[in-house]
Amino acid sequence: MSELFEPLLRPYDERRRAELVAAYMAVEHAAEPVSEVRFAALREPALRRTVEGMLALTGRTLIRADQTRWISGFRDDVAAELARDPECVPPVRERAVLALVLIHSVAIPRAAGLLADDSWLSPYPTPVDELRRRTQLPVGELDAALRRLRTAGLVAQVKAGADDAGGFVPGPQFHRLTGAARRRLQEELILAAGPDSPLAAAIRARRRGRERDEGETA
Amino acid sequence: MTGGDGAASGGVDPRVLARARVRVLGVPVIDASEPVPEGTAAAGDGERVWLLPSWPDGATPALLEEYETAPMPLDRSGQARRVLAAALRCCWTRPDDAPWPGAPAAVADVLEVYGGMSRGDADLARRWATGELRRLADTGWLLLDEESGTVRPGPRVALWAEPSLASLRDLLRRLPEPPQRAEGGDE
């Protein structure tokens, strides 16, 4: 159907080629990072570089989840370009709902020492009541925003259990953040939650410094 | 900043950026006269063209099943599949052809077929199915025109490879028939 990948795949025999295609489709479409035990093209560094090359054709890159598991996500430079395109940015209501879920499900438990520092996934659901109260959105609009966020994999619903009322947690897309994207998100949350804190001042100073450096090299 | 080999201001190849955009936007639509970005698949109906992901060697995400790897989760996936099947039963009127672009069908007919496939409260089933039609339209599996009350196969259907269609044709033949309309073949 497409010649896009042909130059990268042509040098390989049929078996290798199938392994490359399987690894590519797996990291692009799986819900969670996939184990390299299952995918030869993720296990072997030379083949993995080719998977990386295939992903780069659409602006994506491999992300290592832990020692032996992989998934894909947007490259940082591509994500920055896409974020400048208003069509590619979700509407403000969806972003507001998502920010609330991140604050309740990740930032607060992390501050309490319940979550590891570098993860944006969380077992602590944000109750729907909390979203209703804090967003002040009419129920219909909140429901529509949650529906679209769920479809996009940005939030996931947790059914009510014996001990809690259920609610929403960050969705599987949060597996797909690069290290730099995770850091940026962490900084944004600090800037939003404590704009007058010393930590926020340090982040702003570091960003000013980085912009100055980039200005000089451009 | 002074150009170079087609580099954008951020240094990202504009062809790469165009493909990345297609992934972010889902199934974006362009005018048939606009160029399709290189390295993107497309499904057109004469007037408009929908941009689709391009996958290597005819693979589809169904490949994940062979590797027992869970795909991105879909809420109420069984119900979504049944509603999509009911819609195809009505829109894929010439099963020997490809399902894309298919023909428009009345939403009422799709709900009728869906009702015939499900047990229990018929009103409730229709309400669920109506929500499901919207969700399938959001994700490019169907094209829904709520004003005229019609639905058509969505551009994603064009990604199905011919060899995978046989079992789908068999399945659809076993579903309830859509209600017969007096005025046949209206567009």
Automatic annotation (TrEMBL), chain A:
Gene3D superfamilies membership: Winged helix-like DNA-binding domain superfamily/Winged helix DNA-binding domain
InterPro entries in UniProt: DprA_WH, WH-like_DNA-bd_sf
Ranges where the DprA winged helix domain occurs: 121-159
Protein's name according to its UniProt entry: DprA winged helix domain-containing protein
Organism of provenance: Actinomadura fibrosa
Automatic annotation (TrEMBL), chain B:
Organism domain of life: Bacteria
UniProt name for this protein: Uncharacterized protein
